[in-house]
């Protein structure tokens, strides 16, 4: 069983476009993937920990992780669940 099948068996893969190609890339350590974080949040939480563990597991299988700190998100804040416009921050902030 490859890493792709392991993640699938654990319920960590729900939908995939071109599954055969993705499976091959992941199982052979040739995938590059990213996980993004909102720098305006007060802290990381257990949901981030799960994503970080997944990132480490994929890296151990030879894949290339990229951790992104959202520059655009930092300027406008995370809009999740909000209906009002947020004040735009300057890059210096």
UniProtKB/TrEMBL annotation:
Reactions catalysed, as given in the entry: tRNA(Tyr) + L-tyrosine + ATP = L-tyrosyl-tRNA(Tyr) + AMP + diphosphate + H(+)
InterPro entries (UniProt xref): aa-tRNA-synth_I_CS, aa-tRNA-synth_Ic, Rossmann-like_a/b/a_fold, Tyr-tRNA-ligase_bac-type
Pfam families: tRNA-synt_1b
GO (cellular component) term, any one: cytosol
Keyword Iron-sulfur attributed: no
Gene Ontology biological process terms, A to Z: tRNA aminoacylation for protein translation
GO MF: ATP binding; tyrosine-tRNA ligase activity
Record keywords, A-Z: Aminoacyl-tRNA synthetase, ATP-binding, Ligase, Nucleotide-binding, Protein biosynthesis
UniProt xrefs under PANTHER family: TYROSINE--TRNA LIGASE, MITOCHONDRIAL, TYROSYL-TRNA SYNTHETASE
Protein's UniProt name: Tyrosine--tRNA ligase
Phylogenetic placement of the source organism: Bacteria, Bacillati, Bacillota, Clostridia, Lachnospirales
């Amino acid at each position: 069983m490859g890493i792709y099948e392991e993640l699938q068996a654990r319920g960590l893969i729900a939908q995939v476009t071109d599954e055969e190609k993705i499976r091959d890339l992941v199982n052979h350590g040739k995938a590059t993937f990213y996980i993004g974080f909102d720098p305006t949040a007060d802290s990381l939480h257990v949901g981030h920990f799960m994503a970080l563990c997944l990132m480490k597991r994929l890296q151990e299988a030879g894949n290339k992780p990229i951790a992104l700190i959202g520059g655009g998100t930092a300027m406008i804040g995370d809009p999740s669940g909000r209906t009002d416009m947020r004040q735009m921050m300057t890059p210096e902030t």
